[in-house]
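Sample A.
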Amino acid sequence: MSQNEIAISVKGLKKSYKNVPVLTGVDFQVRKGSVFALLGSNGAGKTTIVKILTTLLKQDSGNVIVNGFDVETNSKNVRQSISLTGQFAAVDEVLTGRENLIMITRLRHLDNSHQVADDLLKRFGLIDAADRKVSTYSGGMRRRLDIAMSLVGNPQIIFLDEPATGLDPEVRIGFWQIVRELANGGTTVFLTTQYLDEAEQFANRIAILHEGEIIVSGTLAELKKLFPPAKVEYIEKQPGLEEIFLAIVGKKNEELNKKGGK
C-alpha cells in the first residue's frame, strides 16, 4: 500500500494508565475509502485507540498518522479532517434536533446549513421531531441525531465507536446503508463494534485487539483461512466472524497460559 493510499498509519503504539499497560505495541494501517473494523473484548483497549487517533488522548509512545498528519504535532489538522461518534450520544439536550445540526454546520463553516440539517434529519427519520428539544427524545433518537451530526460536512475519516448501541434493528440497517454509501464515495470509516455480524458484512478489513496488541488483521477471507476447515456433515457450514474471533482469542489465551506455566 503506497503512502497516498493510507488514511491511518499506526506503528508501535503504547499506552498505560497508572503503570498498567493497555496498549503494548499496536501496528496497523487503514486504506483510504475503506471500512476498517477493530474488534476486541470489553477492556481490550479499542476506545483508547480511538481516543488517540482522534487527538482526545496522548500516546506514551509510537507513531500515529491520520490523514497525513501526526496526531501529536498536527492535532488541529487531524481534527479538521475527521468526525467522531462515541459510545454515548453527545448532543445538546437544551436545543432541538434541527438546532443541534445547524450548530455543527456553522462550526464547520458550511453554507446552506438549514438544507444540510433537513437532509440529515430525513435520512435518519427525525424530521417529525426536528423542532422538539432533544431532552424529549428517546435514547435511540438521540443516538440517531448524534450519528447524523457526525456526518455534517462530509469528513474524510469517520470514527464510529460502538455506533449501533441504542439503535433498533430497522434504524441499524438504514445506518449501515449510509456507511456503505460513504465508503463507496471515498470516505474512510474506522469502526469498533460488538455486533460482529455487522463487521462481517460491512468491513473491508478486520483487526482483532487482544492483550494490548493486534493479534490478527486481514480481510474476512484471510481470517477464515486461520480457522479450521469447514465441517461437512449434511451441509458445509462456513464459520462466521464470531466463531473466528472466539477461536483466535481463545488460542491466544492458551499460548499465554502456556508461557506463564513455563
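Sample B, a different protein:
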Amino acid sequence: MRLLIQDVSKTYRDRAGHGVEALAGVTFIVEPEELVAVVGPSGCGKSTLFNMLAGLLAPSGGSIGVEGDLPPGRPPTAMVFQEFALFPWRTVQANVEFGLEEAGRPAAERRATAARYLELTGLAGFERKYPHQLSGGMRQRVGIARALAVDPAVLLMDEPFSALDAQTRQLMQEELLAIWERTRTTILYVTHNIHEAVWMSDRVVVLSRRPGRVLEIVAVDLERPRTESMLGERAFVRAVERIWALIKSQARDALREGVA
C-alpha cells in the first residue's frame, strides 16, 4: 500500500500564543515495499511529521493517508521509537503480544504471531526475559518485533538506533535490512545520519530548516541486498554528498538559532 503525504502543514502555538510553523507544504509518496528515509537539520519537523503519521497529532493542513483498502484489524501504521518504549514489567513475549492484545486477538494467535516475529528478529529463547535483562540492541529488536507483529501497512521508525553505541548501531542497521528483505514491509525511517539514510533506503526525503519543506527527494542507486562494500561505491558517495550539500547551510542556520 502507498503512503500519501499531500501538502501537509503543522502550526503550533507557543507559550505567548504566537503561531510557530513547524511544517509547510510537505508532499511525497512512499511506494509499497519501499524503505524511504527522511533527513534534515535539527528542528526541521521530522518528529512532528512522524507523530502525525502515527495519528498522535492532527495536521493543520493537507492530508495523510494509506492508499488501498485495509483488512479489518490491520493498522495503517506502527511505530518504533527512539527510546525503547518497552513495558518493564512485561516479558519479551508479553511486550511483543501487546498490540495484538489491544486488537483483541485470541491468546493462541497472539502466541503464534509473537513466536514468528521473535524468531525473525533473533529473539527466540529470550521470551521470558524482561527488558532490564537485555542489551540495548536486543531491547530495540523487541520494539521492532512488537511493531511488525500487528502487520502494519507502513512501519514508522523514528531514529530507532540513535541511543545505541556505534558498533551496535551498525549491526542493527544490517539486521533491519535483513528483516526488510524477508518481510518487504513498507518503511519510513527518520534519521539525522546521512550515511545511514543512504545505505539503508531506496530514496531519501530531504527537509529544510523550520518550517520543514521538501528540498529534494534523492534516489539511491545501489543494488539490494546492501553490503558494507557499497559504502565506498561512487553511487553511495554521490548521494551522501548531494544530501549534505542540500542541508549544510540549513543545519548551520539552525545551529546559530539554537533550534533543538
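Observation for Sample B: Residues 234-257 form the longest helix (24 residues).
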